[in-house]
Amino acid sequence: MRIQRIKSSLKFQSQLKQVPVPRTARTTAEIGKYVEHDHSEALTETKTPLDKEYLAKMFPPLTESINPLLTPTPGKWYNLRPSRNGKLPIYTDYNNAGHCWTEVRRIEGDIALFRSDLQDALNLTNKEVFVKQASPTVVLKGNRVAELRTLLQSFTNQQ
C-alpha cells in the first residue's frame, strides 16, 4: 500500500514542469507559484442530453405557474392560522429604545380588511396600526396582547 502511494507521488512529480525560480522567492508559497502542472491527462466530461419529459416536469411552462397568481380571490376574507401549539399567533416585540409593539402574524387573505376590522374593534387610529406586506403581519403600537386574545377568542367562539 505504501509502495503504491510512493509510486503515485513519483508519477505526479514527473508530470510537473519545473520553471526556474527567481532568487527573490523566499517562502515555499512563492516557490510554489513557479511550478506548473501538465493538464494533458485531465478527464474529459461527456455531456449527455437531458430527457425532455424530465425537463418538462422540473420546469413547467411559465403560463401554468403564473396564472394562479393573477386570479383574484373571490370576495374579501381573512383567516388567522394558529401556531404549532394551537394558539393564536399574537406576539409582543420590544426594540432597543424601549418601545413595545404587538404583532399579529400568519394572516391569510385580505390583510387590509383585517387591519380595518381591528381598527374598528379596538378604536385605533391609522398611526397606531400598520401592515407588513412582505410577511403577512399586522403591527399595533403598545402591548395589546390581552385585548387581541379576548377579542379574537370571542370571535372564534361565536362561529
Low-confidence stretches: 65-72
Portion in beta strands: 15-25%
Number of structural units classed as domains: 2
CATH class of the largest domain: Alpha Beta
Examine the coordinates and then state which fold CATH places here, giving the name of the CATH topology of the largest domain. Translation Initiation Factor Eif1
CATH superfamily (homologous) name of the largest domain:
SUI1-like domain
The major sheet is characterized as:
4 strands, antiparallel
Topology pattern, helix = H, strand = E: HEHEHHEEEEHEEH
Count of DSSP strands: 8
Structural class: alpha+beta
Shape: extended
Widest sheet: strand ordering: 4-5-8-7
What is the CA–CA distance across the termini? 77 Å
Question: Would you give an account of this structure?
Answer:
- The protein is of the alpha+beta class and 159 residues long.
- The chain has 2 domains: 2-37, no CATH class; 78-158, SUI1-like domain (Translation Initiation Factor Eif1, 2-Layer Sandwich), CATH 3.30.780.
- Helices cover 38% and strands 19% of the residues.
- It contains 6 helices and 8 strands, in the order αβαβααββββαββα.
- The strands form 3 sheets. A 4-stranded antiparallel β-sheet has the order 4-5-8-7, with helices on one face.
- It is extended and about 70 Å long.
Features:
Large ribosomal subunit protein mL49; 8 strands; structural constituent of ribosome; two-stranded antiparallel sheet; mitochondrion; 4-stranded antiparallel β-sheet; 2 domains; 159 residues; alpha+beta
